[in-house]
Backbone:
């Protein structure tokens, strides 16, 4: 398709489905027309609710039988031991006692996957650089069995209140919550074993959950987010301990906020490399989005896409910092 | 906002208040092997319990706005200590100063309401008016804290719609505030 033809077609599709034209133009050049239309269709289908069992407060078996006795239908998420798709019928997932008691967290499947990919270990120091409202912080604490330290940073005062509420509800005892700008992480003088950077993003993956996202953000917004993501990732890389592991994730499907950002860091930091994710989910990261050649290791990153995986759009990349040779 | 080790005199005050209501040794048992620290927020001071090996690291975060550390135990305001929700499940394992409520009572209590006679499944007869008690459901899961409006031994004589305990804090706050 010529550039002119692609623009024209994008305009038509955008008009028909109520998107901004620049978005459809990008989808057409990333995926072609058939997949673009599949994506658009998938974005009007509801995303299944999912929960994560909080093993700090209960066991998987006991919560499953309690929820089932309340007519909640649960289905295991194959790659996540503690994750379930959950159909609450006409009830609200947040209104049950078991939720107030902190026995589960209502969380998107990609989000719970991101903390599992980080794979934090007991006794480690882990930093969650964009922590509020705490879906990943509470999951990380649970995976560490409340040992070691999770330093949870966020810049937004209001969102920190929700983070603290979730930390308390879930019985997290190993967290330290700090308000500030994570771009200054290295000033903290801590060299974390692991870092979770679930970066603030344009939210382009959230269209199935927020239809207004079809028109609410411009290409300039995407670029603005990409710049901030780049700064946050740079700060993470500088602070991470040698031999340390990190996860970079966003709820955006834009390569500009994902593969491009990671590619930039790989170019600047030869000590950083993308590593394999040992869980079966999603599809590979892009190595040639819009025809731009990027580091081939980015195929080890993973994407969730509404039309392929029935979830919101999401990007997860696991990175390691090599030990300096003596 | 900064974190500081707790002043021993303030801690003694807190201990007296808690042990006075929940029994001798309660505060010590709650503390376990942890250290109490204070984080100031405006007028009130919030007490957190942190692992001993974090003490040396408090200073590392100087210059940062520390919001919380470890387990939130409660607030200390003008000398009066108030429990936080997060510590209550641990307290429930230690104390017998509890009020067990029915399923229906549990529902209304977690909507922020108080407890009436009809909802009470169990209340120790030795407990006194004004005293704080943990509110548990029939599975003995902790739902919050309430203040008794009657002496325990008067319960039998009460009409079913009469107030037994006033809601001080309940886990419904986690979802109401969200
Ligand atoms: C995608 S959300 C994080 C969601 C969270 N990880 C979870 O799983 O619940 C991004 C967060 O980054 C925070 N944020 C934005 N800029 C930041 C900065 N410079 N430093 C720290 N946090 C920041 C926002 O306030 C927002 O809460």
Residues:
């Amino acid at each position: 398709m010529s550039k002119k033809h692609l623009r024209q077609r994008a305009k038509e599709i955008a008009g028909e489905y109520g998107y901004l034209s620049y978005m459809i133009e990008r989808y057409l050049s990333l995926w072609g027309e058939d997949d673009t239309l599949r994506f658009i269709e998938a974005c009007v289908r509801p995303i299944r609710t999912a929960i994560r069992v909080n093993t700090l407060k209960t066991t998987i078996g006991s919560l499953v039988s309690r929820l089932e006795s309340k007519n909640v239908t649960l289905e295991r998420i194959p790659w996540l031991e503690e994750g379930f798709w959950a159909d609450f019928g006409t009830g609200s997932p947040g209104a049950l006692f078991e939720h107030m008691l902190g026995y589960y967290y209502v969380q998107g499947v990609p989000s719970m996957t991101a903390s599992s990919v980080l794979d934090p270990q007991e006794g480690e120091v882990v930093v969650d650089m964009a922590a509020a409202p705490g879906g990943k912080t509470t999951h990380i604490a649970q995976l560490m069995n409340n040992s070691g330290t999770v330093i949870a940073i966020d810049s937004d005062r209001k969102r920190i209140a929700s983070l603290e509420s979730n930390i308390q509800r879930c019985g997290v005892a190993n967290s330290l919550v700090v308000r500030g700008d994570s771009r200054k992480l290295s000033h903290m003088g801590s060299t974390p074993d692991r870092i979770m950077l679930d970066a603030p993003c344009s939210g382009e993956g959230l269209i199935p959950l927020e239809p207004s996202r079809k028109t609410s953000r411009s290409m300039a917004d995407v670029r603005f987010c990409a710049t901030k993501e780049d700064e946050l990732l740079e700060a993470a890389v500088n602070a991470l301990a040698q031999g340390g592991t990190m996860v970079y994730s966003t709820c955006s499907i834009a390569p500009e906020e994902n593969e491009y950002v990671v590619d930039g860091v790989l170019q600047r930091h030869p000590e950083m490399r993308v590593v394999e994710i040992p869980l079966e989910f999603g599809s590979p990261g892009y190595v040639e989005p819009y025809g731009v050649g990027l580091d081939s290791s980015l195929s080890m990153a993973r994407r969730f896409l509404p039309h392929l995986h029935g979830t919101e759009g999401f990007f997860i990349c696991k990175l390691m910092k090599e030990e300096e040779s003596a | 906002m900064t974190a500081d080790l707790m002043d021993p005199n303030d801690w003694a005050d807190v201990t007296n208040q808690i042990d006075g209501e929940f029994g001798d040794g309660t505060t010590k048992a709650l503390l376990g092997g942890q250290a109490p620290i204070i984080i100031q927020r405006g007028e009130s001071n919030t007490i957190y319990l942190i692992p001993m090996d974090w003490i040396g690291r408090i200073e590392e975060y100087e210059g940062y706005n520390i919001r919380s550390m470890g387990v939130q135990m409660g607030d200390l305001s003008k000398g009066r200590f108030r429990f936080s929700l997060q510590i209550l499940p641990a307290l429930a394992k230690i104390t017998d100063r509890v009020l067990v409520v029915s399923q229906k009572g549990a529902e209304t209590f977690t909507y922020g309401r108080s407890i009436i006679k009809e909802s009470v499944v169990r209340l120790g007869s030795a407990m006194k008016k004004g005293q704080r008690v943990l509110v548990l459901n029939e599975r003995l899961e902790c739902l919050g804290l309430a203040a008794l409006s009657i002496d325990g031994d008067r319960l039998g004589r009460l009409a079913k719609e009469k107030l037994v305990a006033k809601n001080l804090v309940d886990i419904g706050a986690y979802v109401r505030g969200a």
